[in-house]
Design a protein that fits this description.
elongated, three-stranded antiparallel sheet, Immunoglobulin-like, four-stranded antiparallel sheet, mainly beta
């Protein structure tokens, strides 16, 4: 038979509260590789059809729903998972190209790839010397 209460689970819930995590908050990692910022959100047990991602005025809003999957008439022996509305808000800098976001959901992880805008990419500027003949004043190379 399964235990109805598990002290370790209760301890984990208290730890989450003290660490500032809440059950309806999607945990995330964000990192940059080259000219792309990647944000991974943990969405375990979420129905992929319920995932909604919106970007408005520099704010990314994520919402999704997780529902329990026990069949009708099931009698719970242990009930630690709950239905949840999962949300996350993230302010995006103006250096990101929010018109070209790529989103993928796989194995409970939602991955967003956001490229840097052209204006945020490093540029090389050639400097003209006085003793050189007149040329264009500035050459921009976006490499």
């Amino acid at each position: 038979m399964l235990m109805r209460t598990d002290p370790a689970v209760q301890w984990n819930r208290l730890t989450e509260l003290f660490e500032g995590r809440t059950p309806g908050l999607a945990l995330m990692d964000a990192y940059r590789v080259g000219d792309v910022v990647t944000v991974d959100f943990e969405l375990p047990g979420v129905d992929p059809a319920s995932i909604d991602v919106q970007i408005e005025r520099g704010e990314l809003r994520l919402s999704a729903r997780r529902r329990r999957t026990a069949p009708d008439g099931a009698q719970y022996l242990v009930r630690e998972r709950s239905d949840a509305e999962i949300t996350r808000r993230l302010m995006l800098g103006d250096v990101l190209d929010v018109e070209h976001v790529d989103a993928e959901h796989r194995d409970g992880i939602l991955t967003l790839r956001i490229p840097l805008s052209q204006s945020a990419k490093p540029r090389r500027i050639d400097v003209r010397h006085q003793d050189e003949p007149e040329q264009s004043a500035i050459t921009v190379d976006s490499t």
